Amino acid sequence: MIDIKGITKSFGSLQVLKGIxxxxxxxxxxxxxxxxxxxxxxxxxxxxxxxxxDSGSIVVNGINVGNLSTSKLSDFRNNHLGFVFQFHQLLPxxxxxxxxxxxxxxxxxxxxxxxxxxxxxxDFMGLADRSTHKPNELSGGEKQRVAVARALMNNPAxxxxxxxxxxxxxxxxxxxxxxxxxxxxxxxxxxxxxxHDESLASLTDRTIYLRDGQIIETNCNE
Length: 222
What we know:
- By secondary structure, the chain is α/β, with parallel strands linked by helices.
- It has a domain at 2-92 and 156-167 and 174-220: P-loop containing nucleotide triphosphate hydrolases (Rossmann fold, 3-Layer(aba) Sandwich), CATH 3.40.50.300.
- Helices cover 36% and strands 27% of the residues.
- It has helices at 40-47, 70-80, 96-106, 111-124, 140-152, 170-187, 198-203, and strands at residues 2-11, 14-24, 29-33, 55-60, 63-64, 81-84, 158-162, 190-194, 206-211, 214-220.
- Strand 7 (158-162), helix 6 and strand 8 form a beta-alpha-beta unit.
- Helix 3 packs across helix 4 (111-124), helix 3 packs parallel to helix 5 and helix 5 runs parallel beside helix 6.
- The longest helix has 18 residues, at 170-187.
- It is globular, with a radius of gyration of 17 Å.
- The two termini are 21 Å apart.
């Protein structure tokens, strides 16, 4: 699903990634861990085509993203990738349903089709009765589940999550972690999760340890 070879990235004189090679199978849930400044978020942003490497290649879902024009890269990102961040990034003026539907509208889908998909996701998330609520009317856990549903709207092949449970309390954190695996089992997505949360990392199929811009260890978790 994701094949990365020789990725490097520098910001000025600071080399953040130093030749990353990584292969992630379809349907894997992989965590990337390491100390602050290790390059975790930079690597995730490069996988997500939100940033460009200085060198190396990235193939996602069979597509070499380095060969895509700016417009095709935007279409690829919207159709093949879903993003979940530490803070939900919901638009405050829109309802839960409307927030979830945004990627579909960007992709040019018809309103009826988008509405049906959003209803399916809200139901799966246990939020069917919250569809007309705006973010300020939702709990922290509900907001993050809406954000996950939005990431799933276009049925992307890959979900990229950056500290997705970092702002949640223990109960909501555990529920979100469980949700990722339920989603993988139901929809077949591949998950790449940057986290400092050891309990989440231990649940994933594989943990990638990053330090000083290099992969220093890979563990398969049982």
